[in-house]
Design brief:
- GO terms for molecular function: isomerase activity.
- This is Sugar phosphate isomerase/epimerase family protein.
- Keywords: Isomerase.
- It contains nine helices and eight strands.
- The protein is an alpha/beta fold.
- It has an eight-stranded parallel barrel with strand order 1-2-3-4-5-6-7-8, surrounded by eight helices.
- α3 packs parallel to α4, α7 packs parallel to α8 and α8 crosses α9.
- The longest helix has 26 residues.
Length: 286
């Protein structure tokens, strides 16, 4: 499993410096938040996208995925019933899928809780959101990209809070590129089953395409409030390994303690340490 870093953790470093730091820390690649690339990432030209990809590859890194899709340009809203906002959101999503393809990403994560909330007309808003997701997922499928719906805790968003809800919407939409992803912070707060049980189930069903590592308190993996709490990643990583998970592990803290670079460096050491321990346990058992 590759371990990648969500690049907004290293802002305000320029992209080249982010890449150099991530490589030196031991990461295999980046998960890119498009808003870190430009005020309006949907307007990046083909030449600019190619140059970004070359700059990342020059440090021996890959772009694994994109996330925080609708943070930029300003004014996007997946659930808006306003025709103009809806049109701009649809076009932005399609262009961001093309950006992901241009950067070589194999996964798109659709989270962005602030831009996907339901209001008084929830039924109509849900239908609008589903139409946008279907269009973006079908474009992703044309590029061979998995388009993942992220379940987000109910304190941040009132739309798609659990993996079961995301799974049901994926089945309802029916676009082949739609997949599930598991975010430790959100799942630890919302799911009844453990991370390990969820991972084993959805890996076995071939539905899990991506995993984001963090803690329920929004800090980095291993920085949770309780060592054996519901956000402990050792059982999750064991389940992923035993289930043959072939996707990436993206380090995505929200609260950078003590700061972004230090948090990123600590996280990669912690995750690799857990994986090394699991590998040693497997060897000892044999």
């Amino acid at each position: 499993m590759r371990i990648v870093l969500c690049n907004e953790v290293l802002r305000p470093m320029p992209l080249a410096a982010q890449c150099a730091f991530a490589r030196q820390a031991g990461y295999d690649g980046l998960e890119i938040a498009p808003f870190t690339l430009a005020d309006d990432p949907t307007r990046l030209t083909a030449d600019e996208i190619t140059e970004l990809r070359r700059a990342i590859a020059a440090q021996g890194l890959a772009v694994a995925s994109l996330h925080w899709l609708t943070m930029a340009p300003e004014g996007l809203d997946l659930t808006s019933l306003d025709a103009e906002i809806g049109s701009r959101t649809r076009q932005a999503l399609l262009r961001l899928v093309d950006l992901a393809a241009g950067l070589g990403a194999g996964v798109i994560v659709h989270g962005s809780p602030a831009q996907r909330r339901l209001g008084a007309q929830a039924k109509d808003q849900r239908a609008v959101a589903m139409a946008h997701i279907e269009a973006a997922a079908r474009r992703a499928g044309e590029h061979g990209i998995a388009y993942c719906l992220e379940a987000i805790n109910r304190r941040e968003c009132n739309f798609l809070n659990t993996l079961a809800e995301a799974e049901a919407m994926i089945a309802e939409i029916g676009a082949p590129a739609l997949r599930l992803m598991l975010d430790v912070c959100h799942a630890a707060q919302e799911e009844q089953d453990s991370l390990a049980v969820l991972a084993a189930r959805y890996c076995r069903q071939g539905k899990l395409a991506h995993v984001q590592l963090n803690a329920a308190n929004r800090r980095g993996p291993g920085q949770g409030d309780h060592a054996g709490g519901p956000d402990a990643i050792a059982p999750l990583l064991r389940a992923l390994t035993e289930s043959g998970y072939g996707g990436d592990l993206a380090v995505e803290p929200f609260d950078y303690v003590p700061d972004g670079p230090a948090c990123a460096a600590r996280a990669i050491g912690y995750v690799r340490g857990v994986l090394d321990g699991l590998e040693k346990d497997a060897v000892d058992k044999n």
